[in-house]
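Inverse folding, one chain.
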């Protein structure tokens, strides 16, 4: 028996067991016909063995029973998780009804709560029990929903369990940390077979065991750790499991907006939308791994930070993820016929109208940004609000600032713009709105409080921060379009070289990027102006013209050349055409025409 200290042998044993048991379980699943068949609402394209959760469960259970000295709390967690594994296994084999699985989850949660493991989020014991039941069932189903792409659920769970293990170590709970380390090792061993392209899925027995084990071990921090402030107790488990929580919330809201059942399967998760944007499946999964790691690091930061810093960090992270969610919500994943079938429903029509206009979201976001900027100004100038004695001033005046600045935003036209087309003109509008709001706020505080105890520097910093946040939030969609690929940028379409890197070339490139129906993949520009050669326009290189066209077409595997302007002389067009014919490349020219629909050009 190994000691209670964090032992690499226990972790190595768990990893080796998963590595050895997974292919055995895979062979058994194929033999007995436990295979997931491709469906219209599922992501995988070929029959894949199920029951990978059996290998995960056995690896964790054997390694922990062989190496750990369990406390009553850890035994309860393991026993309840084993019960949920059994419920999932029955579902994988017999396909039980959703309400029957829910009853099993409630029974597992009741077992955990009976032995005193709850989330101490309120002063009321009954309320804490209710919250804990919701937490255990919610996270279990969130992991189940997250298991929608090769390696995603197992990888996110491995990252979350590793982060939670570090949290336990910092909390003086090495035995619980080892418990999580063993769990993470089993998941990593399983990932070798579950990563893209997966040869085995974990199934419901795996996702329910993994989700319940993660959610219930998070309760052990309150059971055995030292006393901490309310915020870390509340925020740490949420942040550690933020990705499954985010994905479940995101999918639930959007399915309701689309008139679909939240429990219905579909290819509309965060991972699916990233792939729809043109990402490879592997890259989409790794991007979500990155978010999981980032939220985990934020959870560890929140543990030991002051409450003001923690709140600001959590709020900022939430805003970024919310903006990403709104951007991904615009990706078309639903069949138009499905939407049309429920469009006549009054509630659905209202929600769809609300989601498309997005003004409601913009208003809520701006309220958050106003509060965050004002807090940031105080924090930068004075440090902690509690220690500097400025908290009361902040709390007294923040409603005033929200009221006046929102009014300024409305008057100056902040909400008239469209985010994806945010430009310098919009930035000027934002600057006017912030200046007017800051001036109005100062005058209101001067009138109401005589400006006693207030610092003028706070309002200067607040204005600068708010302008940056306001412009940054509006530029978020354009930033996401640069960071994330678009469907037409995924390599599907004809490779096109744009001749002319001027205003017309810029217009043509934007049309290609915004109109996937053209099925063009721009590879760069070519221009006769030697001063433009080697420059970059919107991330695309400008190649030199004047006889170099054939070489550029060969090097870049160009299929078409598009002349971007009608200003080229006919002589120059014939030269370009000759080069394209010699390179066996098609040549086209963009023309912008204004068509008369009245039949009379003289009509005023």
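Residues assigned per position:
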């Amino acid at each position: 028996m190994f000691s209670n200290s964090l032992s690499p042998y226990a972790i190595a044993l768990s990893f080796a067991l998963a590595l050895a048991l997974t292919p055995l379980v895979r062979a058994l699943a194929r033999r007995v016909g436990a295979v997931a068949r491709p469906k219209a609402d599922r992501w995988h394209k070929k029959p894949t063995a199920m029951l990978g959760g059996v290998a995960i469960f056995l690896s964790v259970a054997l390694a922990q029973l062989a190496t750990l000295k369990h406390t009553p709390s850890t035994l309860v967690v393991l026993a309840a998780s084993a019960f949920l594994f059994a419920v999932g296994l029955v579902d994988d084999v017999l396909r039980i009804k959703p309400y029957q699985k829910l009853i099993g989850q409630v029974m597992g949660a009741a077992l955990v709560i009976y032995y005193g493991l709850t989330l101490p989020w309120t002063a009321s014991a009954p309320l804490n029990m209710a919250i804990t039941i919701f937490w255990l069932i919610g996270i279990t189903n969130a992991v189940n929903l997250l298991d929608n792409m090769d390696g995603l659920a197992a990888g996110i769970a491995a990252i979350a369990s590793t982060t939670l293990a570090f949290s336990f170590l910092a909390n003086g709970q090495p035995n619980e940390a080892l418990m999580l380390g063993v769990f993470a090792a089993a998941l990593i061993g399983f990932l070798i077979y579950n990563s893209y392209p997966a040869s085995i899925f974990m199934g419901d027995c795996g996702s329910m065991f993994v989700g319940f084990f993660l959610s219930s071990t998070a309760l052990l921090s309150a059971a055995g750790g030292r006393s901490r402030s309310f915020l870390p107790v509340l925020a740490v488990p949420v942040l550690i499991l933020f990705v499954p929580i985010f994905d479940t919330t995101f999918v639930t809201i959007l399915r309701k907006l689309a008139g679909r059942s939240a429990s219905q399967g579909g290819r509309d998760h965060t991972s699916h939308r990233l792939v729809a944007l043109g990402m490879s499946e592997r890259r989409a999964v790794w991007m979500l791994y990155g978010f999981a790691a980032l939220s985990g690091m934020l959870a560890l930061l929140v543990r030991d930070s002051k409450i003001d810093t923690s709140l600001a960090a959590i709020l900022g992270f939430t805003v970024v993820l919310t903006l990403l969610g709104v951007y991904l919500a615009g990706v078309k994943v639903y069949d138009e016929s499905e939407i049309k079938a429920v469009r006549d429903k009054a509630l659905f029509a209202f929600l769809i109208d609300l989601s498309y206009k997005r003004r409601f979201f913009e208003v809520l976001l701006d309220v958050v940004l106003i509060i965050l900027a004002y807090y940031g100004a105080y924090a930068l100038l004075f440090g902690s609000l509690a220690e500097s004695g400025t908290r009361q001033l902040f709390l007294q005046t923040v409603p005033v600032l929200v009221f006046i600045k929102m009014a300024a935003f409305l008057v100056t036209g902040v909400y008239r713009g469209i985010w994806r087309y945010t430009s310098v003109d919009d930035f000027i509008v934002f600057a006017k709105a912030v200046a007017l709001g800051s001036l109005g706020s100062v005058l209101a505080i001067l009138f109401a409080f005589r400006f006693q105890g207030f610092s003028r520097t706070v309002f200067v910093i607040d204005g600068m921060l708010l302008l940056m946040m306001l412009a940054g939030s509006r530029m978020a969609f354009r930033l996401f379009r640069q960071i994330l690929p678009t469907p037409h940028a995924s390599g599907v379409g004809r490779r096109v070289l744009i001749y002319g890197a001027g205003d017309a070339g810029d217009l043509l490139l934007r049309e290609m990027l915004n109109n996937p129906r053209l099925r063009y993949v721009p590879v760069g520009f070519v221009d006769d102006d030697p001063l433009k050669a080697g420059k970059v326009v919107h991330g695309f290189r400008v190649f030199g013209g004047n006889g170099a066209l054939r070489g550029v077409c060969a090097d870049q595997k160009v299929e078409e050349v598009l002349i971007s302007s009608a200003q080229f002389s006919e002589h120059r067009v014939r030269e370009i055409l000759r080069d394209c014919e010699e390179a066996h490349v098609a040549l086209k020219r963009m023309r912008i025409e204004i068509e008369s629909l009245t039949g009379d050009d003289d009509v005023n």
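The longest strand covers residues 520-527. The radius of gyration is 29 Å.
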